[in-house]
Amino acid sequence: MAVDDGGRVAYAQLTGKLKPQLLQALESSGFTHMTPVQEKVLQLPSLTQDCLVQAKTGTGKTLAFLLPALQKLLEVKDLDRSSVGLLVLAPTRELAQQIVDECDKLTSACNPPLECHIAVGGSKRKFHMDKFLKKSPAILVATPGRLIDYLTEDAARQKFAKIRCVVLDEADRMLDAGFAPALRQILEQIPSKAQAGWQGMCFSATVPPEIQKMLPMVLNKDHVRISTIDENEVPTVETVPQRVYPVPSVDDILPTLHSVLSCAKADNPALKAVIFCSTARHAGLLYHIFGHSGEAAPPKLPVFQMQSRMSQTQRTRTVEEFKATDRGLLFASDVVGRGMDFPDIDLVVQVGVPSEKDQYVHRVGRTGRAGKGGKAVMILAPEEMWFVKSNPEFPIKNEGPFNHPKAATYPSAAIIQSALAKVPQQTKEQAYIGNLGFIKSLMKRYGLHPAGVVELANRFAQSFGCDSIPVLSPMLVGKMGLRGVPGLVVEGKGLVAGPPPGSDAAGPPRDKRGPRGKNGGFRTTEGRRPDGPRRRQNQAREDSGKQGEEPSRKRAKR
Ligand SMILES: Nc1ncnc2c1ncn2[C@@H]1O[C@H](COP(=O)(O)OP(=O)(O)OP(=O)(O)O)[C@@H](O)[C@H]1O
Known about the structure:
By secondary structure, the chain is an alpha/beta fold. It has helices at about 20-30, 35-40, 60-75, 95-105, 125-135, 145-150, 155-160, 170-175, 180-190, 195, 255-265, 280-290, 310-325, 355-365, 385-390, 410-420, 425-440, 445, 450-465, 475-480, 535-545, 550-555, and strands at about 50-55, 85-90, 115-120, 140, 165-170, 200-205, 225, 240-245, 270-275, 305, 330, 345-350, 375-380, 395-400, 470, 490, 495. The longest helix is centred in the last third of the chain and has 17 residues, at about 425-440.
């Protein structure tokens, strides 16, 4: 049948336009009909045009760029397979690996084979580099940092002499201020578009206006723009109901998260959920509370964590396990916020606000993939509700605090307290530092002055079960731009005194509860040594702002 019940066109229609090897691989993978974005791309009069493609999360953009790119390579007579013909750039290692897996499936029927190589940080550089130099990397999927590293070697640079196609997956991320310098550096090292005439393709679910001026880096001025999203439509998945559960104060966040997960598990014993946290350390803390040491997770649900502070081996194993499991909870930072295709996610929970507006769309998009259903909820403290108010275009329903018939059956507050008691202080302190940096990076959006940032972070620390305000090194405080801000406890100096929280100098009062005394209700830890300035400094950099993704900024400056 050429068209299925949903009006989708069969891949068989592309006989003659796509090589039989590709059609055969599609059939073997069970892909019989095109998704709308695949149809729009593959039915272009020419598959060799530069294009900017926007389609919602989970709608098959990976095949939509791989198929035309592979077709292009397979059409070349006597293709030199020892040179890179197709370069795909992605923002995270896990996404790069996922693209390699998808590509390998599509080229499985090619003879001679089309090898797809990977170049990502955290993996064995020498092993992959030797393979890249000695074998036939007709396709390379890379994250920017490691690719820049490769390109410092002449032999590796020469491998790009016959480049024919460059794809940016998650293009808006690849072209933003964090990655653009690295991308520029890469493009300076490979044959120029003008000289080599390579095809450029940019794909993403979100295309903010800011990236327009960066597009000429990879797309010619006559590029085609394809969108499966109406101009005035928000790119979230309509099959995913989205709710916010406001909580009375930061202290209620963790108990509410416990109630939400317990009730979801009661409704669906095989619950598979991703819980997005503000920072890598925040994800680590919640993983401890709900799984590793605290065991607050509903029984019989395996618990996973995924964040940039884990070793690459742990990250790779976790992705494989969470892809394979039919149930479980994944506590994650934004390292898996974009592009990752974990099958059959029932629920996405966002604990706190995302670092950027568009990141909301990508996080929600981990569920409701390939036309399936799912739910997305946010748990927000009063200080975080600005996110919902300032983004009215998102279909986020506010029906008040979490209210489920079974919620009262779980003593969530007591369970969280007891779980927190088992979590190492250091884990809680690190989560505090991460949160402090995160709130500071979004200070204007929160409508806070620095003292308000510290006051809010200190209340978070208490909700995390810190027994006192964690001590920061003077260097870290300086790096965060918080020198002299009241409410901090600084190594060798103790509590920085100042106006009480809630006063004008501390920023607009967001919480009606009175201050907890001069130290927010904590005892001070004057004289206690932090775990080392360098670690704190690095942590602040990676744990704030766009956390969890490839640390390309650092590498780009090399
Ligand atoms: N033609 C198809 N028929 C059925 N399933 C498909 C088809 N194309 C892709 N899929 C499946 O849809 C899921 C989502 O695909 P993919 O990861 O490419 O989405 P995406 O649009 O890139 O999402 P994101 O924006 O989150 O990166 C995958 O599991 C993929 O195997």
